[in-house]
Amino acid sequence: MFLNFRILFVALAISSVTIAQEIENPQNPETEQENNGPGKNVGSVVMGPYFPIAFGDNFVNNGMDLSLGARVSFKVNAYKGIYIGPYFSFFNGDVTDRALLGNYSNTTNFVIGGIVGYETHINKFDFNIGIGVGGSTYNNNGSRERDGFEDTATAVWLNPEVSYRITTYLGFYVAPEIRHDFMNIDAPAALEDTFKGVNYLNVSFGLRINLGTAYKYL
Amino acid sequence: MKRNYLLQILFLGILLLLQSCDPEIKNDTRILIKGNIVDSANNPIPNISVRCQARYAVLGEAISDANGQFQFTSLEVEAFDSLNILVNIKPGSNYYNEDYGYPLIENTNYSAKQYFNNFHNRPATTYNLGTVQLNEAAQLTIFFNNIPGDNNSVSYKLEYDSAICQIDLNLNNSEDCNYLQDDYYQLLDITSSSFETNLESQLNTTVLLKYKLNNEPEETISIPLTNLENTHVFEF
After folding, report:
1. pLDDT value of residue A145
2. Interface touch A99/B73, C-beta < 8 Å
3. What is the pLDDT of residue A71?
4. The predicted structure's pLDDT at residue B177
5. Weakly modelled stretches of chain A, pLDDT under 50
6. Which among A40, A109, B112, B171 would be 20 to 30 A from A134, CA to CA?
7. How far is A140 from chain B (nearest CA, A)?
8. Integer Cα distance of B53 and B45 in angstroms
9. Are B61 and A99 an interchain contact pair (Cβ–Cβ within 8 Å)?
10. Sheet harboring B229-235: ordered strands across?
11. Residue A193 — φ and ψ, nearest 5°?
């Protein structure tokens, strides 16, 4: 909860700065275009709540109750709409079936990885699709403080995203995410199907901050 | 300055001590435990707890269903801790102390079993315990009565099946229920008062009361536990 508020405050602070910059430096797009060309598209930052939804026959879908998390990604425009960048997400979950998962009470999943994708712009809409890969860690906790342990995985995901610019530098996005975690859990053959991987159809929406002057002319 | 160092060392020592009290749960590992529980007449026993435990930490648990069957996933601990699968034993029980036996049993109508694996480098495996037979629990009260008028002295010890049997998962037919209440003889003489002692064992087993009268060769009295509650009188 504390982390959610912190992310919210950071988002509000950044958006305040971007709006303030727009107010303080009103620029005539035509003049700008005449002097400096179409501007530079640096990239964008998206951040917002993250709703994890597991599906399929796996330990998360069958034995956990997932709750809200958050997602942040930074996309750097590399070449003609192709972007790359770092990605971070987390969410929490409570164990509902200890006979299936083992005796622990809750987990926090973190993914740190990278994304690559392509973005295009139509009017005030930005459409992009990206793929990502990263390390996924389930920080599991028992009833006692020292009962913690980790499950790790390699996560891959496909991430279409649509955003709408409400100002030059600020917009809202919505992004479904299809993700698979290739789990590193060592389990007997009878449990392999349950613990070898997890499927997610996650949804995130929130704030998008556009970086660079090119967004004025899109 | 020296005092600061001493405090730091003391603090680190306490931290290490706390760390060593709990087993370290192994990352990225699960094991499966399954079996079915029956009584001495081969009838399934429902609602019997089965726990996987390392020291005090419960790593996985389940109770037997109406057919006596159980299956659950458990966590594992790093190899320097032994893994215990406890059938009908209270959670977090300290089964290393001298009160090993009846007070640790959860459902006191039945005996209990402790399976253990002391091997290092245990693989993530399935522990199929198969059919776990829990005999009905039986109690025995022995009255030691001092009969006035003789100068005999007697030393005795008791040997019987504990209410909790131990099984090494790495050995075949390793079930060991034998329990010596004392591995030395208790001495009774003319100054000893009459008293009674209670023990908990398993139905249809036999308690051996071994004694030496006036340091003569050892003799044995076999006391069969044919009822849930049994009594025996020993006069000296």
Report:
1. 58
2. yes
3. 96
4. 80
5. 1-5, 7-9, 11-12, 14-37
6. A40
7. 10
8. 22
9. yes
10. B195-202, B137-145, B229-235
11. -60, -35
Reported in sequence order, the residue ranges of chain B that DSSP labels E, i.e. its strands, are 31-38, 49-54, 57-63, 69-74, 83-87, 112-117, 126-133, 137-145, 154-168, 176-180, 186-188, 195-202, 206-213, 219-224, 229-235
Instruction: Assign A31 to helix, strand or coil.
Output: helix
Strand partners, A74: A45
Single-letter residue type at B158: L
**Which member of A100, A144, A187 has the closest CB to residue B124?**
A187
Q: How far, in Å, are A13, A183, B129, B206, B208 from residue B179 at the CA level? A: 71, 45, 23, 12, 11
User: Cβ of B32 and A191 within 8 Å?
Assistant: yes
Task: Report how far residue A48's alpha carbon sits from residue B56's, in angstroms, rounded to the nearest whole number.
Answer: 41
Tokens of A19: 């709006």
CA nearest A167: which of A36, A8, A16?
A16
Residues of B in contact with A152 (CB under 8 A): 27-28
The contacts of residue A151 (CB under 8 Å, 6+ apart) are A107, A137, A138, A140, A183, A184, A185, B27, B28
pLDDT at A1: 44
Are B178 and B161 contacting, i.e. CB atoms less than 8 angstroms apart?
yes
Residue A154 in contact with partner chain B when CB distance is under 8 A = no
Chain A CB contacts of B22 under 8 Å are 144, 146-147
φ, ψ of residue B7 to 5 degrees: the values are: -65, -40
What was the pLDDT predicted at A195?
96
For chain B, residues with pLDDT lower than 70 are 1-21, 92-103, 179-183
A2: DSSP letter: H
Contacts of B112 (CB under 8 A, 6+ apart): B86, B87, B88, B89, B104, B105, B106, B134, B163, B164, B165
